[in-house]
């Protein structure tokens, strides 16, 4: 279907079949397309206002430079979608599946992700403001150079995710798993990380001034220096890189990760040499 630059208002079309449709530059206001099939459609530069795409299929669709305001994508299936330079405000992605989606340079404001699959998603230079992600799988997601400003991640699985040079200032990362995540060069100023696990995570050159690691598990974290830990907040509930309890004390050596946190193989025990026998 060739519907580029079409203008639709108050349209209701449940289960509409728009696979491979051309909706580039279209404008949709107060439209409802539940269970619609928009797989592989071109929705680039389209504008969606107060509309609903609940349970829709958007697999491999392009929403590059699209503008979505107050749009519900609850339970949408959108693997491999492309959202490059898209602008999203007050959108609801509850229950949505967007594995391997690309959000390069996208701007998200007050968006909600709950019980979502965002595995292997790409967020290079994306900007998330006042957004909430709860019970989301972000395994192997890449937030390199992203800005996650005044947003909240809670109970998320972020194992193996990358946050190189990301700005997490003022973010809340609560009760999340960041096992083997990469935070090299990231900004943590004012971030709160209570209850999160950072086993094997890398922190080389991360800015931790004012970061709140109280009740965080840093056992096995790599690259944290005495200076970084002294600039952050730790308490008796913090588990430090060497596995000891906080708070961190200068010259304690607790910044050095324990072998278990690094997943090092234990040394092979050699059998004792037999005692020499007399001639």
Task: Compile the SSE list and pairings.
Elements: E1 7-9, E2 27-29, E3 47-49, E4 67-69, E5 87-89, E6 107-109, E7 112-114, E8 127-129, E9 132-134, E10 147-149, E11 152-154, E12 172-174, H1 226-231
Parallel strand pairs: 1-2, 2-3, 3-4, 4-5, 5-6, 6-8, 7-9, 8-10, 9-11, 11-12
The major sheet is characterized as: 8 strands, parallel
**What proportion strand?**
5-15%
Identify low-pLDDT runs: 260-273
- As for the number of domains, it is 2
Quick one: CATH class of the largest domain?
Answer: Mainly Beta
- Per DSSP E runs of 2 or more residues, the count of β-strands stands at 12
Write the element-wise H/E pattern from the N-terminal end onward: EEEEEEEEEEEEH
| CATH 2nd-level architecture of the largest domain | 3 Solenoid
**Radius of gyration over C-alpha positions, nearest whole angstrom:** 23 Å
Mean pLDDT score, rounded?
A: 93
Identify the strand order in the major beta sheet: 1-2-3-4-5-6-8-10
CATH topology (level 3) name of the largest domain: Pectate Lyase C-like
What's the tally of helices?
1
Secondary structure: helix percent: under 10%
N→C terminal distance: 97 Å
Give the helix/strand class.
Answer: mainly beta
**Mass-distribution shape:** elongated
């Amino acid at each position: 279907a060739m519907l580029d630059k079409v203008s639709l208002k108050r349209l209701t079309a449940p289960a509409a079949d728009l696979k491979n449709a051309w909706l580039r530059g279209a404008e949709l206001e107060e439209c409802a397309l539940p269970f619609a099939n928009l797989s592989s459609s071109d929705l680039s530069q389209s504008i969606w206002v107060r509309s609903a795409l609940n349970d829709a299929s958007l697999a491999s669709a392009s929403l590059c430079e699209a503008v979505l305001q107050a749009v519900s994508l609850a339970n949408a299936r959108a693997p491999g979608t492309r959202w490059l330079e898209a602008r999203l405000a007050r959108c609801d992605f509850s229950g949505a599946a967007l594995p391997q989606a690309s959000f390069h340079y996208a701007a998200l404001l007050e968006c909600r992700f709950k019980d979502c699959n965002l595995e292997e998603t790409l967020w290079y230079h994306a900007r998330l403001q006042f957004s909430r992600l709860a019970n989301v799988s972000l395994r192997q997601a890449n937030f390199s150079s992203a800005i996650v400003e005044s947003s909240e991640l809670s109970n998320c699985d972020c194992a193996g995710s990358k946050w190189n040079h990301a700005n997490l200032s003022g973010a809340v990362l609560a009760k999340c798993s960041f096992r083997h995540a990469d935070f090299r060069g990231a900004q943590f100023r004012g971030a709160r990380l209570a209850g999160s696990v950072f086993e094997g995570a890398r922190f080389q050159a991360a800015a931790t001034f004012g970061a709140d690691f109280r009740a965080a598990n840093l056992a096995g974290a790599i690259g944290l220096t005495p200076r970084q830990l002294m600039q952050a907040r730790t308490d008796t509930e913090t588990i430090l890189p060497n596995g000891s309890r906080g708070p961190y004390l200068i010259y304690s050596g607790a910044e050095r990760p324990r072998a278990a946190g690094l997943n090092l193989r234990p040394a092979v025990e050699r059998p004792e040499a037999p005692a020499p026998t007399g001639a």
